[in-house]
Specification:
Layout: E1 8-10, E2 13-15, H1 18-32, E3 37-41, E4 44-48, E5 51-53, E6 56-58, E7 61-64, E8 67-71, E9 74-80, H2 94-107, E10 111-114
Parallel strand pairs: 9-10
Antiparallel strand pairs: 1-2, 3-8, 4-7, 5-6, 8-9
C-alpha cells in the first residue's frame, strides 16, 4: 500500500504530495475570500514534554498537522490523506492514529482528514 506521494514545492512550502499542495491552494483562495483566517502550514502541537527514560533524554513528542486555520471562530486542524480505492477509507498509519488520539486527549482538538 502506497501512503506517500511525491514531495512538491509551492509558495515557499514543501508539501508531501500534490494532493496536499492542491488543498493548500484551495485554502489560500478561501482565506482571500474571507471564509477562513490565520492559515498555518505544517503547524506543530506538543503532545508530551521531553522526558528522561533509562538515563537518556527523550525529546518532546509532537504532531505536525498539514494545516490549521480559523473558521467561524473555531480552530480547524486538518491532515490531507488519500482514500483506499477499494474501501473508500482514509489511508492512515498506526502512528497517525495514536497522535490523532493524543491531539483530542491533550488539546481537545479533533484532527479532520481531508482529501480524495
Amino acid at each position: 500500500m502506497r501512503t506517500r506521494g511525491k514531495r512538491v514545492y509551492c509558495d515557499g512550502h514543501w508539501f508531501g504530495s500534490g494532493l496536499e499542495m492542491r488543498h493548500y491552494q484551495d485554502l489560500v483562495l478561501r482565506e482571500k475570500a474571507g471564509e477562513i483566517s490565520d492559515l498555518r502550514v505544517h503547524p506543530k502541537f506538543v503532545l508530551a514534554p521531553a522526558v528522561r527514560l533509562g538515563g537518556r533524554r527523550k525529546p518532546k513528542l509532537t504532531f505536525e498537522a498539514d494545516f490549521s486555520y480559523m473558521e467561524n471562530g473555531e480552530l480547524v486542524v486538518c491532515d490531507v490523506k488519500p482514500r483506499d480505492r477499494k474501501t473508500g477509507k482514509w489511508i492512515v498509519t498506526a502512528v497517525y492514529r495514536v497522535k490523532k488520539h493524543l491531539m483530542m486527549s491533550v488539546h481537545g482538538i479533533e484532527v479532520v482528514e481531508v482529501g480524495v
